[in-house]
Description:
Blueprint: H1 2-24, E1 27-31, E2 36-44, E3 48-53, E4 57-62, E5 66-70, H2 96-103, E6 122-126, E7 131-140, E8 143-148, E9 152-157, E10 161-165, E11 170-174, E12 180-186, E13 190-195, E14 198-202, E15 206-211, E16 220-231, E17 237-249, E18 253-266, E19 269-284, E20 289-301, E21 306-323, E22 326-341, E23 351-366, E24 371-381, E25 389-402, E26 405-416, E27 431-442
Antiparallel strand pairs: 1-2, 1-5, 2-3, 3-4, 6-7, 6-10, 7-8, 7-15, 8-9, 11-12, 11-15, 12-13, 13-14, 16-17, 16-27, 17-18, 18-19, 19-20, 20-21, 21-22, 22-23, 23-24, 24-25, 25-26, 26-27
Amino acid sequence: xxxxxxxxxxxxxTLSFWWVVLPASADFLIGTNGDRFTGxxxxxxxxxxxxxxxxxxxxxxxxxxxxxIQRSPxxxxxxxxxxxxxxxxxxxxxxxGALSTLNSQPSAINWLPPxxxxxxxxxxxxxxxxxLRGRLYYIQQHKVEFDSDELKDLSLDLKDVRQxxxxxxxxxxxxxxxxxxxxxxxxxxxxxxxxxxxxxxxRDQLTGITPxxxxxxDFWSGNLSVALSLQSGNTRQATLTTSAELARRTPxxxxxxxxxxxxxxxxxxxxxxxxxxxxxxxxxxxxxWFLRPAYLEYYKxxxxxxxxxxxxxxxxxxxxxxxxxxxxxxxxxxxxQYTKFQTVEVGQSDTASTPAGVLQTSxxxxxxxxxxxxxxxxxxxTSEEAGLYSHHAVSTLExxxxxxxxxxxxxxxxxxxxxxxxxxxxxxxxxxxxLNLGVGVKF
Length: 443
């Protein structure tokens, strides 16, 4: 009995020590708009403060934007005294239960900005305890897109976000449930939606959230990447690679348009000239399954003797992995392909029309917080006259330099099993390899 009492006492002292000391090691900066940053004050002047935020790095904030700086709070012997400032008394409504439950928990990280529920702004809290005010664009595929008043547009992993308090009603989709519309509150474990009915669902069942009643442009996002390679001396060579993506997301649907183009010259002779445009439309059926009622691809490559190639397909997809930091999906279905060749041998048709089987896979993994690996492969099975088998594979390492700015290293492999012989008798190579290094901008 004494041994158990001693262990309980030791455990209690240890927990009390970490409970109090860890928060005390950080400073808290509270902005006039209610933003709360966790980190350290680096430098202070009469006009501004340099603050090292766990999320935003070094921030230079004018004094006029700062309401309060809280430094290393004094130790508290009894954790029951860790009472933080309570949120304002909110009238009976969708936020009341979540806020009252939160304030009853004895943890310094549960400080709530008093403006929640009053200022008609969206609020999110990170696991570090930092609070940001701004506008929530959407939550989908375990990503939170948020426009912060202080840090501007942010793309955060959902696993790094503790709570979300949107000011306006949202469209919300859960597994095996119809899309709902109403006021949303996301806490550490649950998602509460109050609309025509009130439901509370475990957070891991959340598929996506998008705003309702806002501009159409709020559903769209995209990125643009450009790479230029120049070589002089014994060999003069220049290659320009351009890629772009534009996507529209709702809790249950995704429209994705992408472009990849390459143009190159070596010693004044064209060494690359190809363009590829892909478009898809996905409808989420459940946490694992989705329907792809439309997939379209246009491709041209002069050096591969392809003047135009168009493919259309439908399919069903499945998520092998679908969690924070790791996603792997596969899609397959029937399609149709039309090809127009640049030149052909005498007596040969310069077009090919054929049914096609289309198989696609996309894999994404977070190696670190800033470094991601992305692999996409599109495979096509066609008739022999159209090439029999082809694939387009892209492996990318994406490193976040700053918000909206990425460094991309990608390896591209295009393959066609039976290339069409040109009128000159030349046979294009089966494989085309490219290594691209570029800078990308997200918007």
